[in-house]
Amino acid sequence: MAVLLSVLAIVGSGLTAGVLFCVALSVVPLFFALPPEEYLVTHRLIGRHFDPAMPVIVLVSAAADLGLAVLAPATRWWHVFAALLLLGVSAVSHFGNVPLNRLVRRGGDVPADWSDPRRRWRALNLVRTVLAVLALIVNAAVHAAR
């Protein structure tokens, strides 16, 4: 069981870090290069597949780390730390990025008093990217140390 949980924790935290890093490196600059109307359409299209998949990947990875915290007492606190980092990714997403995504998904024309969410969205994405990369580092290091 510990081997399966280790694989889930490493693969899940790796996918999370990789997706968020890719978004930070490629997608966010694209968002900033577009005029508001095109940005809204593009953001909706890109988020259509990430939005349902990423919460599952992040939470399964965190659950795997918590399971390892129970099964592997020698590395318990490292797994708890990795799980907390992943739960931080989830919290930033849920309370920061998701509300901004909902604003973007409303559709329609850009209102005259539109408050561009791109800078805030980018900052939140960078926070969760750092948390995800740290979770991957912890998971990989714990596995390598065994």
Task: Name its key features.
mainly alpha; 146 residues; 4 helices
Blueprint of the fold:
Elements: H1 2-33, H2 36-71, H3 76-105, H4 118-145
Helix pairs in contact: 1-2, 1-4, 2-3, 3-4
Fold and architecture overview:
- This protein has 146 residues and is mainly α.
- It has one domain (2-145).
- It has 4 helices and no strands.
- α2 packs antiparallel against α3 (76-105) and α3 (76-105) packs antiparallel against α4.
- It is elongated and about 60 Å long.
- It starts with a helix and ends with a helix.
- The model has no long low-confidence stretch (mean pLDDT 93).
Total strands: 0
Radius of gyration: 17 Å
Percent helix, as a range, is over 70%
Number of helices: 4
- Indicate the low-confidence ranges by residue numbers: none
Strand content: under 5%
CA distance, first residue to last residue: 16 Å
Instruction: State the major sheet.
Output: none
What are the secondary-structure elements, in order, as H or E?
HHHH
Short characterization:
The chain is mostly helical and 146 residues long.
